[in-house]
Write the structure tokens for this entry.
Amino acid sequence: MPLLKRKAFEKSNVSEYLRDDDEVFHCEITDEIFKDYEEYCERIILVNSMVWTCEMTGKNNLTYAEALESEKAARRSLKDFPMELRIPILYLATKTKRSSFAEMSEDLFNYVRKRFFVGETVEACLEGDIWREAHVLSVTAQKQHPDSKSMLPASAYCYEVEQFDDDPAAAGQIGTAPYDRVRRRKGVYTRDKNRLFLKQFVAPGNIIGIKTSAIEKYNIAKVNFDQIFTGNPPDFPSSKKLIKTSMSPPSSSKMPMKPGSASKLNKSLKRPSPDKKGRQESMDKFIKKTDKTEVKPKTPMDPEARKSAQELADKMRRAEDQMRQRREEEKAKKKEKNARLTAYMKEWHKVKEDQELEDHKIIPKGTPVEVEGIPHKHFGDFLSVLEFVHNFSELLKVKDVFHNELDFETFRKSLTHKEHAWIFSELVQMLLTTIFSLQEDEAEEYNESNRIQESVEVVQADSGVDTLRAIELATKAGKWTQTYLGTALSKLPLDPTTVSEVLRLHLLSSGGAAGSRCAAWRLHQRGGYNSADDPALRLRTSRPAALRRLRARHLADLPLDDKFQILQCLMNQIMSYATVRDQIEEKLEEYKNLKHALRTLQINERKREPQLSAARIELKKESAQKKEELKLTGDKAKAADEELKEAIEKLKKDSDIKRAEYEKKLKEMQAQLFDHTTYVGTDRAFRRYWLTRRVAGLFVEAGAEPRGPCRNKPLPPPPAPRDDVMAYVTELFHSERDRERQKEQAGSDKENESGANSRGSSPKKPLANLNGLSQKLNGSDAVVQQCRDLLVCSAQIDTCFVHGKGDFRPQWWVYNTEEQIEALIESLNKRGLRESDLRQTLELDKANIIDYVKKCPLHLLTPTVTPHAPSTRPRKIQPSLYVPPDCSLSEALELSLRDHILELEEKIFHGCLGALKVKDREAWRGTIMLRGYDKQADYLSWGPGKQFRDDYHQPDGHLKLPTDIDQSELETIPENKYRDPGHWLETPKVNGVKTEPEEDSGAKPDVVRGLACALLQVAQSIHQKYLKRPLGLDEKERKDREARNKPLELEALERWEVSLMESRSFASLALHLLALDSSVSWAASVLHASCRVCRRRADPDNMLLCDGCNKGHHLYCLKPKLSLGLKKKKVPEGDWFCDQCKPKEKTPRKRRKLYTDEDADDILDDSAADAVAVCAACGSGGRLAAECRACAARFHAECAAPRQRLSRRFLCDACQAPERDSEDSEYNTALVKLKTRKSRASEETSVQGTSKRGRKPKEHINGTSSRKSKSLTNGIHEERASKKRSREALERARLEPEALATLLRDAMKHKDSWPFHDPVTVEEVPDYFEVIDQPMDFNTIKTKLEEEDYETNEQMLNDVALIFTNCYTYNKDTHPVAKAGMRLEKYINKRCAELNLPSLPDTNVDTEELEDEDAPKAKRPKLN
């Protein structure tokens, strides 16, 4: 029942004189009935007022309903109070001596919560970590001295328990458990439950006791403490109030003087009149009478006694104040000390900079890495290359190059042994091939991305002049291979002899300015990448000496530093491409998803254990409820228990299966995450820890990078470490306090000493200072050695292992055993900023790391370890470049190049493709075989117009002239302005002063010059007609020039000769040789020809090639037979043609009579189905023997082409013209400028004339010419044509600005319109205006259309047609710009038809060269 003002609430009684019709008011909360409404209202107000107190818990300020609910909740809580604890708690409550219920409850709770009583149900752990329910059988305690009455702590007791088995019928396990292996279930016994339970049975009084009814109910008087526990009953402390009461004396004569009574006594002595009643009553508070009835008269106090008492009281008061003040000061000091210690400990436990910690342990040193030929400063680059090749093996196609992955020993030998230099060359070839492939893929991608807006690449303003200059030079170098070798850089042949030059050209051209669409695409897809970010450009500006050495040396002859710099540059370039960036991002996303999946798996597993326990408890409750409801006994109860046991077993098996699956998945995910781990962490000395996938082991790198300044002073030596962290920190705190005091004392002593010395004239120095230097040095050495062992800062940059520079950096170690890993983890500091993360990573992946480092190839990393025998025999790979043991790599390249030159000359000579212009060919070859050279001529000439001489013109524009040369002849010698792309590399500087480039130890300049001259002679020996693109002319260009009687000048070959004579390395010569080899028409060689008659390739010496079809014929297979001798018929001099290519003589024929209009009408009337059949060439009738398979035009046998007269695949002259959609040609050839152009207003087209573009005129579509069509059908076609022309004239006469604007907008959006947007400038194409008289572009047309300069449609369409006419005039057919113009013109004609506009005027260009003296010269092809 709730209490009202701490008193029991009494409900109002119902009146007995109520009638059935009386009006009453019912209070539902208290269940009371009132007859008076005012009383009812007062009760409602009282019930809802917060004046009620819960009787069970004592909570106040509650409403009646809240108090009632609190009582109900308390009773529900007491229902779960264990019965086994009720008697012990009530028994112990009788032993308490407290005047406060709160103190009594707290005493009992503190005693009972850590002790367990006989018969109590608890949880015990007897084996492993498995806790099971059990009940306490007995309690045993540690032995104690019989005279000792102190209470034993809770940890001194052990408990004999019997665990409950899952089978109720079976006996449980009995064992003894210590204090920490026994516990109560959570929530069974709490402080609140203890207070609620005691509150029901306590009785108020001076000493809180237990009600007599409760003692009788539970027979507490008969309970012995040994029955519920062991030993003597506890002696609980008494309340302070009771202690004071017990210590107070019964009378004033026996009362001792207390310190606190001095003031009271003083007050009593100040009473002047003891006879007053009020004063006398105040003294009764200090004097207790033993007998109230006995009253003794009090005599007045003597003044002397009063004075002495006053002095005594004052003295006692002062002593009391001093003692109180002293206690307060000691308490404040202790409190301050504890606060400092607590703050120090809190600060000590924080994660700090590793070099600021004092409790470091010595990190065990791993095995030093000593790889033969690879110093420590390059070992990190060595591992990074292996790791890169391993991670990107699919992209690099490693198995296609090395037949397996690149291993440690192979890569080491390729860097240090000349016999394995070809492996290093293959590695660089693989990287270059990948870069070229990525460039092609990127070009295709941004060409397909039509939505990308064009933009100009903008280099950042802070890039500097050097970067802008480097980008400009790289842009020029990018055009070198196309200009001088006729081939794009990515298409150059790659082998060990040419890879050095290709690499040099790639590094020189990397970072060039990109096109507008390419720059925009790279900006979006490669993360804001621009030319200034190219790694090769940065290498070129930071280390130009490496590229200078590469010009004269082979790649494998470079210093080790240059090799790794080049490899790092190529790897960085590969990782900058969008494709590789996507792969890296996918790997990172996969790693992120794996970590998330692992975290989810672990969370689910932690949830599974509580779910299993809850399911087991639920099964037990269901089984108990079932037995209780069905009242099962005997066998039925046993059967229910068996079912419960089987269900629990099944639940356990399912849990074990899930546990096994979890462990399996956990190992798999951890292994996958471990595969992604490379960087592990950093220790206190900034050493980095690495795990590489290609070389097993935990590697430690002490890098050479700067690490900042040293500390001002080294850390003081810490006290000896202890297992107890609290004691260690306390001792550390006290030691720091002592050092601070010593500093303060030393400072004061120093001041005193300085004052004393200032007073004396000549202070004496102590003798100890005489050897102070040696002592100081010895102490300093000890401190330095200690700092080095602990890897902490010694505060001296010369001796510091952390911040200093010396032989100890860079350096590498490796951990390869389980003991080393465990010792490393144990030595890392948990409080360190870096070492804490490193330790956590190592602990998480400890198992995987230990398994992995056991595979470490220690015999490769340390020469002192004996290598183990290989399990499998390594596969022997045929080297692509063989270097004999007795010669250097440069000599091997020289011999290989000499063999290639001789082989090329032999194939040319025996293939009848040309002959050396020397006196004795065999002597020339012999000197080359003997590693010499004899040109058998006074000098060799080369270049444009053969204006350069080998005896005058030296590389880099130097002239070597004789001393006796005339001044007039000197002026006629041309200057060679050619410069190598690497000529402008910055000269290395020493202290800001440029130095001369170092002498290259590669190829000798005179040997390279001699081989270049030999290759020049071989190239000049080849007949021009057997040279094709890239250095020669293709068949069409050759025929075109021959038809125009123009000289067959090979500009590409002349540029090739200039760059050849500037070569300084064997790799450059090999590249020129392969370019020449690819330009030779080997199909025309006799060695590759087969006899057209007998179909055999045998006997090439008697093979004769036709100058028309280049097909072979044996001399003895011809009829009549030919011979080289005198007896038989000789081979004719000059050109020889076979029977099929020999031009046949035309027999004169009579002029046939032409049909008239009347004859045509008669023929049409005779047979409507028969069509008029006339020759498309001469316009006459007769027997037509040939029909064009393209346009179906028919010809006489005499009028058809001689070679294809009777062929089923016959094509007329108009259809034989080359199509516009032929393959692109990347070669720059001379453009033949036409002297005259076909008039667009001409109405007649010549039948025999063939346009340059090979496009068929509209009049030739049906196989007839305009000249003949007027006389065939009696004027009908002419009338239709005139009507059509008149209609087109009307369409062209009017102006449709909207349709024209739409046409122009669509044309400018077309993907092939990029060359025609803007006007051509002289800076882009210097000779453009020498060829084109009337330039035109789309933006100009757009401006004229907006300004209303056009009056008719025809005027604008003529300007559009002029764009394509200029394009076809300046560019050759196979040029990409010309092809783009063809496609765009076709598209514009299509749009004209859709917009009801007339088609473009004819843009064909007449290729006939007229006899015009004022015709300009031919120019080279340019864009637009």
